[in-house]
Design brief:
- The protein is an all-alpha fold and 108 residues long.
- It has helices at 18-29, 34-56, 64-86, 90-107.
- α1 packs across α4.
- It is elongated.
- Keywords: Membrane, Transmembrane, Transmembrane helix.
- InterPro entries: DUF6170.
C-alpha cells in the first residue's frame, strides 16, 4: 500500500494537469464518509491548535518562529492524509470528472 505525498504520485492521476488533479480530488472528497471527514478534520485540528495556543500566549517575537514552523507543517501533514483518504474514491471521482468535462465540451 503506497502512501502519497503529492497528487502527481497517484498513478490514476499522472496523465492529468495540476488543476485537473485538484478538481478530481475535490470530487473524491465529496464522497468522503463521516469517519473519513472526522479523521481529516482531527488531523487539521491537531496541527492548527498549537498556533492558536501560541497566539493566545504571544509575549515575545521569538514565538513567531515556532508559529511559522507549525503553519508550514500544516499542508505537509494534512495533504498526504487528504490524498490517501481520497484515493479510495478516485474511480467514482474520475467518472464524475469525465462526465463534467464532456458536458462542458458539449456546451461550448
Amino acid at each position: 500500500m503506497a502512501f502519497y505525498f503529492k497528487s502527481s504520485q497517484i498513478p490514476d492521476l499522472k496523465s492529468y494537469s495540476f488543476t485537473q488533479r485538484a478538481q478530481i480530488i475535490k470530487l473524491a472528497q465529496a464522497h468522503f464518509t463521516v469517519p473519513d471527514k472526522f479523521i481529516l478534520n482531527i488531523s487539521k485540528l491537531v496541527v492548527l491548535s498549537p498556533i492558536f495556543v501560541m497566539v493566545a500566549q504571544f509575549e515575545a517575537w521569538w514565538m513567531l518562529f515556532p508559529m511559522l514552523v507549525v503553519g508550514l507543517c500544516y499542508p505537509i501533514i494534512t495533504n498526504p492524509i487528504q490524498l490517501n483518504l481520497a484515493k479510495k474514491y478516485l474511480p467514482q471521482a474520475l467518472k464524475n470528472y469525465k462526465v463534467q468535462t464532456e458536458a462542458d465540451l458539449e456546451e461550448t
